[in-house]
Amino acid sequence: MESAFPLFADWLSAAWLGTPAWMWLGFLALVAALLAFDLGVLHRESREIGTRESLGLSALYIALGLGFGGWVWWALGAESGMNYLTGFVVEKTLAMDNVFVIAMIFSFFAVPRIHQHRVLFWGILGVIVLRAVMIGFGAALVTQFSWVLYLFAAFLVATGVKMLLFAEKERPLSENPLVRLMRRRLNVTEAHHGERFFVRLPHPATGRPTWFVTPLFMALVMVEVADVIFAVDSVPAIFAITTDPFIVYTSNIFAILGLRALYFALAAMIHRFAHLKVALSVVLIFIGAKVFAAELMGIGKIPPTVSLSVTFAILASGILYSLWKTRPGSGAPQPGGPGG
After folding, report:
1. Number of CB atoms found within 10 A of residue 104's CB
2. Is the pTM of this model over 0.85?
3. Helical segments of 109-203, H only
4. Bridge partners, 188 (sequence order)
5. Collapsing DSSP states into helix, strand and coil, what is residue 101?
6. Measured in Å, how far apart are the chain's first and last C-alpha atoms?
7. Helices 215-241 and 177-185: crossing angle, nearest 10°?
8. What does the pLDDT look like over 283-329, one tens digit per residue?
9. Is the pLDDT at 67 greater than 60, yes or no?
10. Where are the transmembrane segments (predicted)?
11. Where are the domains of the chain?
């Protein structure tokens, strides 16, 4: 036992993707504890989440995310702390944009509010795994081929310009190829069956007991796919801020952890953020452009404090402008919350 302890201590202190293994284990343990507390204590039984509870949980998750950023600042230095906070702010705002899509998915599949938390909870578990794979792949690419960072930056600039100049026409989910494929290839129930993703029912043609997927499962699949699509923007964005995998992954996950709680407050007033996409597009252009400005134009690396200040100023301006343009009495449409 005495000889094993030093080996274990050496393993904990060994660098894994540039950061000591004990930091990775500590972060993953914290995330697991938060998810266990959420599912096992706060939401052990299915129930609707009100706006007040949603805002309270969101404030808790934001405080935890910022607190973790303070610890990163203390443990890894001011530059790492600033990069974490910048990534956290950018990812949090991009996640807010994701609420529009999730609300549309829940409305299309008529997911009752009492079961929406279940979809979001299992969705976040998928996000943790999918983001780990995508970030690990991105880190390997950037390490082996430094020029990939310029591809990420060019993609961000192009995406930002497209969002700024060309309004995308939303395609009805009924025409979505994945929805049509699932309905064609899988046995799908017409009605919901509580919070179950799968049910065993008599087949309408043979009468034999057969496994069916429910609309709740289809909603979960679409939420996961939506996150993959949004990750195509967010992962390059954070790599353009920092290439440290620990900062990239932790800022992403802490920003997304609170999305589940924040959804129930934002979903009722998503129309108030109608102009947020403009601010997001400018942020993506700024983050991508500063990579080229730093390396190709000889300006040098832009200080993290400048990146964080500019990013925060752009996003805050976009949020405040949206709230002002959609204020009661402004003539802007005031729709209700999402269906379901």
Report:
1. 18
2. no
3. 113-144, 148-165, 177-185
4. 213
5. helix
6. 57
7. 140
8. 888 888 877 776 665 565 667 777 778 887 887 888 788 778 777 66
9. yes
10. 21-42, 54-74, 94-112, 119-141, 147-167, 216-240, 246-266, 278-299, 305-324
11. 21-325
